[in-house]
Design a protein that fits this description.
Length: about 675
């Protein structure tokens, strides 16, 4: 038992009862004792990495106790106290850290990188910043459900330099989302001190710039943290809005244990040691006559027994036996596809109208579907696909967004966590780069990591041939087909576009839905008027022939059709892939085995594209059947030029006819 001395922190217990005060103490003691044990295990080489939150416990514990257990918290790597205060069984936590099955990620992710719906905790991805946009989405879900709940999200002061922080605060402010943004300013981001991280006096000063009320709290004073956050949470539940809190605290150990603290001045360390949140609170409780040596000893013994028991059982649990199909089966959430047949009544629609109709009918099918994008509400979107939607479905469900692709993709993820579906419209698929991180790292990996679906469709108006230059012409599907966890759909006809879009929205997995702009107003087709669905992973065989298999998708389908019209004597299978992930390999292989020749046409520049992968697939599966080498056609290895004569030269379309003829003559 440590000696009792005067407290270095000025506490004000207001009207808190003894039971609550003791609980605050107990809840801080628990993560501290777990950490002390972890440091021993680390020295013994029994665990690999440890990010210490020693000295910062008051923030995790105070915030968690101020919220209801039904309210989501999004912690970071130093917030063990969030997990323990939410009473996650230590056996499961320890198994998580040891990569065992009773953890939360089946050994697929480490440390605090997991979420759990059971405890309403959404853990981080390594990239730090995306947490804040995800919190926006959860808060938006709460706002739409009108359940009066708040959401708390954490970041270090280093993480506030990321664009995600700015975007998330701005969106939360514009939409008045009930989020408590908690900055733990602990003096360092890895080795970088605050003066190299930002140049305003306090990070809380930034609140004003976003139109958000901001507060500075002593992060080492558990009573200040708990009472103020509780008061704010109660206020936000009644009057939804975001708040920003900067907790002043200090990181007393290395960024992670192995990296040490050599760069931290000793005097600073000493000063903050004297402000230890647990020792000081303990002294206060003794002075107040609330804590006694008996209670203190009992708490310690109880926690230590819990730790020892849980460690023993976690070590006893056997290591995971790798099983390839288990891994593959968890990349996507199972989707029970419902085939809803098209009705007979049809109407001739342009590609763009078919998408609009599919989207509109999906809004009618799913009351929980929200669409978000720039200029999509009153203005109807730059391609007018959502024209009239706001009148039909209201501004809650049809949301104009600020220009912040990252935060909106993250918001969509948060909506999915809160059980709502969303469609995000990229104004042009080129701009997806500004939301790339959350798509490939958060949405794509979420189900594999902790069984959380990312029930999101990202609409991608794409493609060239419209003289729009390097930033409004790309067809960037290959950036996403590369990433396990995403589905990629790329229709070429209005009928497919409508039925595949409705399926994409039904599918609980993240789907990138490519819509070629050059097809929007040039391609018409009879489209069933009612709602219907089409399955993923089924190519459509547009023409059947004997001499060659033409495999393509998107605008390439129309280039191939044009060429075949010019050469009615060519007997070709024409395969429109329709979806790239999942891919209908069976249809491709069967066709090439029949014809003995294959040409793959893609609009994107050639290297690293779909055509290369399909060519490799055919070499591996059809080599003995081939009468000629597989031919790939793509566009030039340059950015997409603006002037139409340069663009014509760029596009692979130009080379297709000649290549097809020479392949047939091989
Ligand atoms: C996008 C990104 N860049 C860099 C890193 C490496 N990194 C991990 S934590 C960290 C420091 C974070 O500092 P801060 O936000 O202050 O949190 P603290 O560790 O101090 O709690 C860095 C640079 C990362 N994980 N993600
Ligand atoms: Mg920091």
């Amino acid at each position: 038992m440590a000696s009792i001395s005067e407290s270095n922190i000025a506490y004000n217990k207001k009207d808190l009862d003894d039971k609550t005060l003791l609980k605050l103490y107990y809840n801080m003691l628990k993560p501290r004792l777990i950490e002390e044990k972890m440091l021993i295990l680390l020295r013994q080489g029994k665990i690999s990495k440890w990010f210490s939150g020693i000295g910062q416990e008051a923030i995790s514990v105070g915030v968690t106790m101020a919220l209801k257990s039904t309210e989501y918290i999004l912690p970071m790597h130093r917030n063990l106290g969030v997990f323990t205060t939410r009473k996650i069984p230590l056996h499961r936590l320890f198994c998580q850290w040891q990569g065992k099955l009773s953890g939360f990620t089946k050994g697929r992710d480490r440390s605090f990188h997991f979420g759990t719906q059971d405890y309403k905790i959404v853990g981080m991805i390594s990239h730090l910043g995306p947490q804040m946009g995800v919190a926006d989405g959860i808060a938006l879900g709460n706002l739409l459900k009108k359940n009066g709940q708040v959401t708390a999200v954490f970041t270090g002061e280093g993480g506030t330099s990321e664009g995600d922080f700015h975007e998330a605060l701005n969106v939360a402010s514009v939409w008045q989302l009930p989020v408590i943004f908690c900055i733990e300013n602990n003096g360092y981001g890895l080795s970088t001190p605050t003066e190299q991280q930002y140049r305003c006096e306090n990070l809380a000063d930034r609140g004003k710039g976003y139109g958000i009320d901001a507060y500075i709290l002593d992060g080492n004073n558990i009573l200040e943290v708990y009472t103020k956050v509780k008061e704010l949470a109660e206020s936000l539940r009644k009057r939804p809005r975001p708040v920003l809190i900067e907790f002043k605290t200090f990181r007393r150990r290395g960024h992670e244990e192995a990296s040490g603290t050599k760069y931290v001045p000793e005097a600073k360390m000493k000063a903050w040691e004297a402000k230890d949140p647990i020792d000081n609170f303990k002294n206060f409780l003794y002075t107040e006559g609330i804590l006694t040596p008996e209670i203190e000893a009992q708490y310690e013994a109880q926690i230590k027994t819990e730790i020892t028991t849980a460690l023993t059982s976690a070590y006893a649990e056997s290591n995971i036996t790798p099983n390839e199909s288990n891994e593959l089966n968890d990349v996507y959430k199972e989707f029970n596809y419902q085939d809803i047949k098209p009705n007979l009544k049809v109407e001739e629609l342009r590609f763009v109208d078919a998408i609009s109709e599919g989207l509109k009918q999906s809004m009618e099918q799913h009351n929980d579907l929200v669409i978000m994008g720039q200029d999509i509400a009153e203005y109807g979107g730059v391609f007018k696909i959502t024209d009239g939607f706001v009148e039909a479905f209201g501004t809650d469900r049809v949301r104009n967004t600020p220009i912040c692709e990252s935060a909106i993709v993250e918001t969509a993820m948060g909506l999915s966590i809160s059980g709502l579906k969303s469609v995000v419209e990229m104004q042009f698929s080129d701009f997806v780069t500004s939301g790339f991180n959350p798509i490939v790292n958060y949405l794509a990996k979420s189900h594999y990591r902790w069984a959380q679906a990312a029930d999101i469709v990202i609409r991608m108006p794409c493609g060239g041939g419209v003289a729009a230059g390097p930033f409004h012409s790309q067809t960037n599907e290959a950036w996403f087909t590369k990433t396990p966890g995403l589905k990629v759909v790329y229709p070429a006809f209005p009928f497919d576009a409508k039925g595949l879009l409705t399926s994409a929205i039904n599918d609980p997995n993240p789907v990138l839905f490519f819509e070629h702009k050059a097809l929007y107003r040039s391609i018409r087709q009879d489209v069933p008027t009612d709602y219907y669905t089409l399955p993923f992973g089924k190519a459509s065989i547009l023409k059947e022939g004997e001499s060659v298999s033409i495999i393509t998708y998107g605008a390439g389908v129309h280039w191939a059709l044009e060429t075949l019209e010019k050469h009615p004597n060519i007997s070709a299978d024409l395969i429109d892939l329709r979806t790239l992930q999942p891919l209908d390999s069976n249809a491709i292989i069967a066709s090439v085995k029949k014809t003995g020749r294959a040409i793959i046409l893609q609009e994107d520049s050639l290297f690293g594209g779909i055509a290369s992968d399909l060519s490799a697939l055919l070499m591996e599966t059809c080599f003995e059947y081939l009468d000629a080498p597989v031919k790939r056609i793509g566009s030039l290895e340059t950015p997409i030029p603006f002037a139409s004569q340069l663009e014509d030269q760029y596009l692979g379309k130009r080379k297709f006819e000649k290549a097809l003829i020479s392949l047939l003559a091989y």
